[in-house]
C-alpha cells in the first residue's frame, strides 16, 4: 500500500522557533516544571490538545470574508443553520461560543438538584456543568472500554445493561435526559458503534428518556463506524453521521473539534418546549439567537468546516496520522493504550517508568522529558490532574493529541525519534513533587520541582 499523503497543500506557513536542549532545560525551569506555564513559542511540536488548534482551509477563510455581522437574521446565520440542520436533522439550532456554553444552557434548563445524568463518559466540562446544576454525573462505559490494554473496535460504547440498571435504581422521574459522547474523549477518542447508539436509544425510548449526543467528534466517530462496523463500508460519512444523529433528541457540540475551527459550538434539539427555554438562556448568556456567542464570520467557517470533517480523504488521512504514531511507538515497546483513538495516542507512564510510584508523578516525568529532549508538549492525565490530595488517579497516562491539518509526517517522525531517545533513557527519569497548587484544577497552574530521590515502591 502507498503512503497516505496529507490531502492538502500548504498556502500559508507559521514558523516554528527552534530551541536547543540547554535552552529548554532553562525554559522548563522558569515554567516551574509545568508545561502549561510555557510560552507556546518555546514549544516546537505542540500536542497539548486537538481543541481549537487546527488549521482552516482556503474555503473556510474565503467563507469568513463573506461573514455578515448583522445583529439579527444575518445570511451567515442562515448558512450556518442550514449546514447544521443538513447534517444533524435537528429542528432547533443554537450557536454558542464553545461546547461548554451549550452544556451550561442544557444543564441550566433541564437539570434540577437530585437528578442523575448517565453518559458513556462525561467529558470534564460536561460533568462540571451537570454537577453544578445539582446532578449526579454517572459514567457507564463498558468493561472493555475501561481496560487500557484490550484491543476492541468500540471502546466508547455505553454499557446498556448498566444503563437499564441505573434507570431502575434511581427511577425515570430522576433522569431528565441521558447523554452519549462520540467519540469518547476520556479514552483518547474511542468510538461508539452505530449499533450501540441505536440500542441506547431503544432502551431510553422504552422509559421515555430523551438522548442528548455530545457530538464534538461526530465525524471521527462516523469514520470508525465506516471502517470497523459490519455492513458500513459502502456508506458515506455524511450518511452515517445522519443516522447517528437520528437516534438523538438533541446535541451539544464544540466546533473546536470536528467543526474544524478555532472557536465555536452549538446546542440543538427537536423539543419545542426545550427550545423555548434554551432560547431565553441563550439570549441571557450568549447572544441573540441568530448569532449566539459567535461572530458572523465564525458561523461561516463552521458551516464549511462541518462538511470538510465528513470528507473521506480527510478522515482517512487524519486516522492514518494517529495510527502511524501508535504503530511506531508500539513497535519500539512503548506501552500505549490500544487501539489508538481518533484524536490522540495515550502512553501508559506507569508502565513506561515502572521505577516511579504515583506519588512521584510518572506522567509529569515523561511529559517533561519529551519537552527537554525534543521541545514536544504533551499533557499528563494522571495523579497531578486527577489525583485528590495524596490519593492517586486510577491511571498514569500521557496524551499526545493531534491538532487537525497542522503537522506533517516529518513532524510525527521527529516525535517518534524523540520518544525513542526518551525511552532509551527512561531509567534516568526521576520523580517530581508539587511545590504549590490551587484548590481546583491544580494541574493547570501547579508549580513543580524535580525530586532528589524517588518514593520507595511498596512490595506487592
Ligand atoms: C471539548 C469537549 C467539550 C467542551 O467543549 P469546549 O469547546 O472546550 O467548551 C465537551 N465534550 C467533549 C467530548 C469535548 O471533547
Question: How would you characterize the overall build of this protein?
Answer:
Helix 5 links the parallel strand 3 and strand 4. Helix 4 runs parallel beside helix 5 and helix 4 packs across helix 11. The chain starts with 20 loop residues before the first helix and ends in a 10-residue tail after the last strand. The mean pLDDT is 95. It folds into two domains: 170 residues, Aspartate Aminotransferase, domain 1, CATH 3.90.1150; 251 residues, 3-Layer(aba) Sandwich (Aspartate Aminotransferase, domain 2). With 460 residues, the chain is of the alpha/beta class. It contains 17 helices and 14 strands. It is globular. Strands 2-8-7-6-5 form a five-stranded mixed β-sheet, with helices on both faces. The site of pyridoxal-5'-phosphate (PLP) has 15 residues, from helix 4 and helix 5.
